[in-house]
């Protein structure tokens, strides 16, 4: 499929209402949107997830779904750089702040710099036999140890985020930014119909803001509307996958330019 033109996508106006997707925000949106300089560190593409119940229906669905795992892995790898660049451009355009991301960011983080700062990096290995890596661009680095979790999603939910705070603070200081943004997204199957013929898929995305002390100050959870498709329907999977661009755009446009999402905010 033709790769999205980043600048063209940013120019599009998506008429997305909050009724078409589920969103939940936590923390201080004011603090997040007040950061004057931001480093977008990583956008992880997580493995797909599908339920194991109802037992018979799920077994049939998952058995067929495995037939497109290879195609899914290729799709994820091809888009690893694109999703980072897209979020970076949208964040920069909507916030009108100084945003560093992609190769520009990682060109600064040489092995010598990391050694001097005593910053540890890890291979993005996860505990998943079918998808053993969280997908990130080849040039980027991973600052979190995912080796004991099934996906980055599990890591961001754990107390282990406290252990990485010093690293995040060092990154901010070296890059001379006020905060960091991490994100991940995936295409889970939420419901499986009788005999596993059809599954209901959605885009699921999380975005996290950290301040220069390494403290998480704001996060958002975005879930798109459900889309029904068969377990071997790669076109249906990719259709949901590409909603990342639509909802990432809509989210940043709203938090920086519109107050309409405030009712979804759980302010600390």
Summarize the structure in words:
- By secondary structure, the chain is of the alpha/beta class.
- It has helices at 6-11, 29-34, 55-65, 69-95, 102-106, 111-117, 152-156, 165-175, 234-241, 243-257, and strands at residues 21-27, 37-45, 98-101, 179-186, 189-192, 199-201, 204-211, 216-224, 227-229, 265-266.
- The chain is built from ten helices and ten strands.
- Helix 4 (69-95) runs parallel beside helix 10 (243-257).
How would you concisely characterize the structure shown here?
This protein is an alpha/beta fold and 268 residues long. It contains ten helices and ten strands. Mean pLDDT is 90; it is low at 1-19.
How many H/I helices? 10
Which shape, going by the Cα principal axes?
globular
What do the pLDDT scores average to?
90
Poorly predicted parts: 1-19
Element string (H = helix, E = strand): HEHEHHEHHHHEEEEEEHHE
Overall radius of gyration? 18 Å
User: What is the beta-strand fraction?
Assistant: 15-25%
State the share of residues found in helices, binned by percent: 25-40%
| Sequence of strands across the biggest β-sheet | 3-2-4-7-8-1-10
Instruction: State the secondary-structure class.
Output: alpha/beta
Q: How far do the termini sit from each other? A: 42 Å
Count of DSSP strands: 10
